[in-house]
Amino acid sequence: MSLIELSQQLYDSELGTALRESIYMFPIIEGLHLIGLAFSVGLLVFVDLRLLGLFLRFIPIDKLLHPLRPWILVGFLVTIVTGILLFVAAASKIVLLDVFFYKLIFIVLAGINAFWFEVKWGQQIKNWANDEQYPKGARIAGGVSLALWSLVVITGRLIPYLSYE
Amino acid sequence: MSTLEVFKAIQASEFSRFVGGQDHLFGAVFQLIHIVGLILVLSSVILVSLRLITVGEFANQSLIRLSDATAHLIWIGLGLLAFSGVFIFIPAATNYYPNSAFWAKFIFLVLALLVHVTLYNKITSVDNPNKTLARFTAVLVISLWLAVAFSARFIGFV
């Protein structure tokens, strides 16, 4: 089954049709997607800026990342679940857009960057959390995360506008 | 002059017709700025509210310094929201007039700003505010800002 056929099946499914036809469900899911984004990407931006030494320099990174991590993860969970529902509702149109695949690529790259940060720097975070300037690799991970999540937001917001072309 | 007449005059202005006559990607740029502004405000309020609510290690951080640091971001976010909001609003001002979600958004926005400049600023001006009042403030400001975001998403659907 091709991606186009699969997306058409999702679009025509009971769930896809119900989401499109409901007056309230679509904006509620969009609203939750936005709120999930504020908890996930919004709070992650603060962590990235702290890694770069540009924001909240008075809080060591471990004291910021540790309490925020569960909220960031819940935010991502909400964003992903609502994102899948938004995709199902318009699947056959969205898969025709290059910008959608760019968004997915940026999300995967951001995930790989986060995983690399956790393995390489997150394990021994207490060893460098109180340093005046953080290790170059950790700063690069913060900068890359900031750039990739910005691109995810930009490409995501462009999806409805490029659908009309 | 009634509100509707004001909206009609705004939409009929030369500037409004210029904005409305642009490519739809021109509008997408302002929508993008709008969303960045909203995320800046929401995530800043969420960060400070987590400090007000949590009892764990985050509770040891200075509330004054945290709210000072995020205050700039909140005002930058509000500036971006107002700037982009004008460009989104003026080409279709009369369409917004009968839209209940549009008015709900502004009511929640006014309430959120009122609570922000009064209770929120008062609570975050000390490092150890009354815990019950701090939690009440956090829940109130988050609820109001989330209501702003939700009603904004409903504008296109009612």
Describe this structure in words.
The longest helix of chain A has 29 residues, at 61-89. Chain A has helices spanning 3-12, 14-21, 25-51, 61-89, 91-94, 98-122, 125-128, 136-162. Chain A is elongated. Chain A has eight helices and no strands. Chain A has one domain (3-162). By secondary structure, chain B is mostly helical. Chain B has one domain. Helices cover 80% and strands 0% of the residues of chain B. The longest helix of chain B is centred in the first third of the chain and has 30 residues, at 24-53. The model of chain B has no long low-confidence stretch (mean pLDDT 92). The chains are: A mainly alpha (165), B mainly alpha (158). The interface between A and B is medium-sized, with 32 and 33 residues.
Topology:
The complex is a heterodimer of chains A (165) and B (158).
Chain A: H1 3-12, H2 14-21, H3 25-51, H4 61-89, H5 91-94, H6 98-122, H7 125-128, H8 136-162
Chain B: H1 3-12, H2 14-20, H3 24-53, H4 63-89, H5 93-96, H6 100-123, H7 131-154
